Amino acid sequence: MRGRSLATVPWLLVRHELRLLASLWLWAARRTHGAAEGLPVFGHTRGQGPMMWGIAFVCVVESVMMSLLLRDWPTVHHVVLVLDVYTVVFVVGLHAASVVRPHVLDPVGGTLRVRRAVHVDVRIPLERIASVRRELRAAHEPADGELNLAVGLQTSVTVELAEPVVHVGFLGRRREVRVVRCHADDPAALVRAVDQAREGYAVP
Questions:
Q1: CA separation, residue 122 to residues 10, 111, 112, 164 (Å)
Q2: Are 101 and 117 in contact (CB under 8 A)?
Q3: Which pTM does this prediction carry?
């Protein structure tokens, strides 16, 4: 069992990279992943953009500097250049993945889909939600039964569950969570929409 689990790790990594590349295409095409037409979506990248673009800029500067330093060693220079370009694509891809994968509320299906980039995707049945509130938090200590999806080091919405949901980690580890904290660009709108959906009212 352990060997089979380890054998799946390369596939999980490859799948992750493919999803990042697909996110770049969706972003360029101004399309959204996993949100049927008419469903309310809630972005969560407003606090992340400047940081990600800053990291990408630093990577570009580093690439230029390394090219100058390694110009007399063409083989090493080409290898480092490929790695540097891939790093920039990876960083931009992470941001694109978050942009094209907003949180999605499905009042008819009765689910709240909370996401972050391509590696977190949790579907929460509305009937399992005990409470949802706007709560700005900048510190998150790891705790059993809690899932913290901070953006820009903070979360702004807290969802407490009457019954746990299963979160599947990047490498396939499964654990039950009863509290989900996430970020939304407009946390008040997300909280209001979830409350309306739970009460059976139409969500604008």
A1: 23, 10, 8, 11
A2: yes
A3: 0.83
Q: Is 184 helix (H, G, I), strand (E, B) or coil?
A: coil
The residues, ordered by sequence, that sit 6+ positions from 168 with a Cβ below 8 Å of its Cβ are 174
What is the rounded CA–CA span in Å between residue 101 and residue 35?
8
Q: Going by DSSP bridges, is the β-strand pair 41-42/103-106 parallel, antiparallel, or unpaired? A: antiparallel
Bridge partners (DSSP) listed for residue 182: 157
The beta-carbon contacts of 78-87 under 8 Å, at least 24 apart in sequence, are 84/59, 87/59
Stronger pLDDT, 5 or 41, i.e. the higher one: 41
Going through 65-182 in order, the beta strands assigned E by DSSP cover 103-106, 111-116, 120-125, 129-137, 146-148, 155-168, 174-182
Cα(107)–Cα(192) distance, integer angstroms: 13
For 93-110, how does the pLDDT look when each residue is reduced to its tens digit (9 = 90+)? 999 999 999 999 999 999
5 pLDDT exceeds 70? Answer: no
Dig out the tokens for 150 from the structure: 């901070």
Q: Helix H segments across the chain?
A: 2-28, 49-69, 74-100, 187-199
Q: Which amino acid is at 174?
A: R
Find, among 154, 114, 116, 159, the residue nearest to 137 by Cα: 154
pLDDT per position as a tens digit, 29-76:
999 998 888 899 999 998 787 777 788 888 888 888 888 888 888 888
Q: 98: which DSSP letter?
A: H
Please enumerate in sequence order all residues whose Cβ is within 8 A of that of 187, keeping only pairs 6 or more positions apart, or say none: 134, 136, 156, 157
CA distance 20 to 89: 9
